[in-house]
Amino acid sequence: MNKTNNTLVIKVCFIAALAGLLFGLDIAYVNGALEFIARDFNLTEDQSQQIAGVLLTGAAVGALCSGWLSRIFGRKKILVLAALIFTIFTLAGILSHNINAFLVTRFILGLAIGIASFVAPLYLSEIAPYKIRGGLIAMYQLMITIGILLMFVSNASLHSTGSWRIMLAVLLIPSAIMLIGTLTLPESPRWLVLVGRGKDAENVLTKIRGTKAEVDFEISEIKESLVGAKSGFKLLSHPYFLKVLLLGVLLQGLQQFSGMNAFMYYSSKIFMEAGVNNPAVATMIVGLVNVLTTFLAIKYVDKLGRKPILYFGLMLLIASCAVSGYIFHLQSTGVILNATLQYTLLCFCLLFIFAFAISLGPIVWILCAEIYPLEGRDFGITVSTMANWIFNAIIGSYTLTWFKNLGVSGTFWLFGGACILGVILVNRFTPETKDVTLEELEFNLKANKKLRDLGERTN
After folding, report:
1. How many CB atoms lie within 10 A of CB 3?
2. What is the domain count for the chain?
3. For residue range 117-168, what is the model confidence (pLDDT) as tens digits?
4. Residue 373's domain is classified under what CATH number?
5. How many CB atoms lie within 10 A of CB 141?
6. What's the predicted TM-score (pTM) here?
């Protein structure tokens, strides 16, 4: 691929990945704004909890519908739809004058988040050259982490205004940028072939690939993969599709039960338990580590491969959970944490963030965008994305209960145990997809190769 085409691909993928930025911004908005929303609308504690919960509910519904929508209308149009929803309903939220209207806007913004969490990784996987596919899909996860960090910083800097409307208005800028940007995107060439628009697919690939030979080869591979193709639902009758569908669900379950989102939701409480004097500052440091580490994942995922980085991250996660759990256990037995223990706990908590951000955070999304056959990709990613939101909701709903019943120490050990199971999942069932085209992965899958062997080259 020549430099010009490479730059164009990165630019296209950056615009698509802005969906992740808005995802992160909206998820993190409530952290810092909730007290002002509760004050202005005179909310009870239960009503306050609904503001975060209704967003997750909307995201689950959006993810459920997005596969069907993207199959019919195309990846680009659905990305534009998500950007349009982000823009219109962020503005509607700012103008809300009662809690019911505000909750409706949050639910609809959740729909956009669910749609974006499905379509953006799918689009990135189908537009990117296989040599740099992993890094470009990881850009989506990077934008989520940047969005979370920017919202933490924005809310903190605007806290003195006492206005949740001003805090929310910040989101209008990236929403408008994404809307304008997505209108300039090309359609996915793989979707174009899927709906019989082969000439249009060839025109798109001509703009983003280096040579005509590359374009012709990719078009022929895509068409070959569709010979005898069935829809996602009909593919459920095939064991090869069921096993890769289950792998996607298990990978998303591993990502959530590693404990990262529990940490992000309740980091202030965890740091307060540890005796950290300024939990808000510690939380912002967590956000910064999350962003910087994701850059490393983007740089190395296509050089070292998916599985080596997953092993590395899981081992660090297990160590972090074990040590952090032990220190919290000491605290629960009455030991007063001295400066050394507090510093050690903070270091291992940051190591936990580093380990997740370099491995499970981006790579699970990468794998789930790669492993499904083209005709079942919409359905497969819908299922795995829905699984992510369901597991996410479980973590969000029960972490505080686990803190109470198991203690913070027991909860960390629970997450560490999930990571041990994750090592087995990666070793026995997860393929290495580095330097392999999506069509080669699909050929191996339909040839009934073992899941871990799907990444073997076919030519």
Report:
1. 8
2. 2
3. 888 888 888 888 877 888 878 888 888 889 988 888 888 889 889 999 999 9
4. 1.20.1250.20
5. 26
6. 0.78
